[in-house]
Amino acid sequence: MNILAYIIQKEFIQIIRNKAILPMMTVLPIVQLIVLSNAASNEVKNVNVVVVDMDQSESSRTLNHKIIANDRITLVATSFNTNEAYFYLQENTSDIVIEIPPNFENDYINGKQPKIQLLVNATNGQQAIVGSGYLKAIVASFNAKLIQKVIPDISISKQSNTTISSRYWYNPELKYTHFMAPGILAQLTALLTIILSAMNVVREREVGTIEQINVTPLKKWQFILGKLIPFLCIGLVLFTVGIIASKLIFNIPILGNLLLLFGYTTLNIIAVLGLGLLISNFADTQQQAIFIAFFFIIIFVLMSGLFTPIDSMPKWAQQLTIGNPLAHFISVSRKVLMKGSGFWNIRFEFLYTFILAFIFNGLAVWSYKKQV
Amino acid sequence: MNTPFAIEVDKLTKRFGDFIAVNAITFKVKKGEIFGFLGANGAGKTTAIKMLIGLSKPTEGMGKIAGFNVDTEPEKIKKNIGYMSQKFSLYDDLTVVENIQFYGGIYGLSRKKIKEKTTEILEELELTEVSKSLVISLPLGWKQRLAFAISMVHDPEIVFLDEPTGGVDPRVRRQFWETIYQVAEKGRTVFVTTHYMDEAEYCDRVSIMVAGKIEALDTPHNLKQQFEATSMDEVFLKLAR
């Protein structure tokens, strides 16, 4: 046990003397939190629209005004010519062309059900679906009002049909940053610790000090644990800095038990560090270590549910995320912070992460060879 | 355990694929002896040493270091040997004292013992003034002597020195050899490789390795007679052509 203390002490001295690590632990997470939480947004905040009004009636103009009045929609141009409108789509200056046919009002009054056409630039699927959704909602409400106006005597106005009222739980204001910040926090912690640990043992190999360590009777587990504990501390500091920053900057909700979150975070960092050390054992140079680490990081981040929900992945991909410690971390971070989940709600994340921690660290100890 | 030999090696061999780096070397080193392990670059010296100190598994043959088998008991060997590699291997970003403490610590010395050793090393090497300086700031000669002292922080029976005097000035080399003699006088065995033939003359016995094999092994005096040479330099050149 005493021997372990000497290794940990030495690692800490080296970490403190390393001028790059302190900013990495403080400035980096805050900058990333601010930039990513705001910028990495799937929210569609602006839809550019071209209106082709071939009717020029009172009704068509009312619809036109309704569209312009929406603050998420920008009217790029109005046109009488469909071809001209297509040009805007092609130029990417417009996301949607809305075509109101001639005789729209007349047909409407005569009960002929005129058709409004939306031409949507679907290069970006998300933008297309959400944008056309906005417009459909506007047309629907316009439709309802028009029916009342045109056919006031019909008792539709009494609205005897079902209405839906939604209330948004856990994030009532639908703030995107509340959703992103906890995820990015988790991603940052995992990313930094995996890189630091992957680089560390390789560096000793490059410098040659590992050979000196290997001729001592030091046990393999002592060596791995001696590396793991200091980096665990760094990871926890980083996570704490991140939580405080998110609270101060975005006022993220902290509904759950922070002790539970930190408990899980500790377990998760241990798992990720195990992987980092495992990578370290197989790489001969720091360059190799970084490349291998990046391979995992990219898969982990893109399949973590940070940007795209895991539920909308194909079944096989969903199953793969069980092996992704970052996916569990993000899930737990969101659940505990936003929903106030307790241990029972995140038991599977705990279980999976525990298994991963065991496998990664086991392999790290096993693959660390004192003898070649 | 009660053999007079610190190192016993019998037909020790290391192959890397088809290449035979060390080809069935056989020799014995007595306790308290200064044994010079010479050879040209690429002759297989470092590979041989790595097998002796338990860093590399032998392909064939038998080796006993301090009574322990190199193949099956490398961790026991490690408690009883010190090793200073040709690549400088202290931590540059730790101070002199921190390096001593760290290595003392991982050899499992007690806190009190580490303290004693620290004072002893600092005084012996006259490093007290720079004890709190980072090792990176020391001149190479000082670093090498410190590395030597640290490789013996746990008072091993045998110490392996792989080109310890490479790149240091003649004065430091002299100090180095004085230390080696002191170590040997205390009954410890010194196993040393070098490219300086004047240093070879200081050894009790010398082996010369050529292309993975030991081609000559005797006292410097006898080797010179055997090869009808006036200096070890000549002996070496005659063998390692």
Short description:
The complex is a heterodimer of chains A (372) and B (241). By secondary structure, chain A is of the alpha/beta class.
Keywords:
heterodimer, A: 372 residues, alpha/beta, abc type-2 transporter like fold, 14 helices, 4 strands, B: 241 residues, Rossmann fold, six-stranded mixed β-sheet, four-stranded antiparallel β-sheet, 9 helices, 37% helix, globular, ATP-binding (chain B), ABC transporter ATP-binding protein (chain B)
What can you see in these coordinates?
The complex is a heterodimer of chains A (372) and B (241). Chain A is built from 14 helices and four strands. With 372 residues, chain A is of the alpha/beta class. In chain A, strands 2-1-3-4 form a four-stranded mixed β-sheet, sandwiched between helices. Chain A is elongated, with a radius of gyration of 28 Å. The mean pLDDT of chain A is 87. In chain B, a hairpin with a 2-residue loop joins strand 4 and strand 5. Chain B has a single domain, classed as Rossmann fold. In chain B, the strands form two sheets. In chain B, strands 6-7-8-3-9-10 form a six-stranded mixed β-sheet, with helices on both faces. Chain B is of the alpha/beta class. Chains A and B meet through helix 1 and helix 8 of A and helix 2 and helix 3 of B. Chain A: Keywords: Cell membrane, Membrane, Transmembrane, Transmembrane helix, Transport. Chain A: It is found in: Cell membrane.
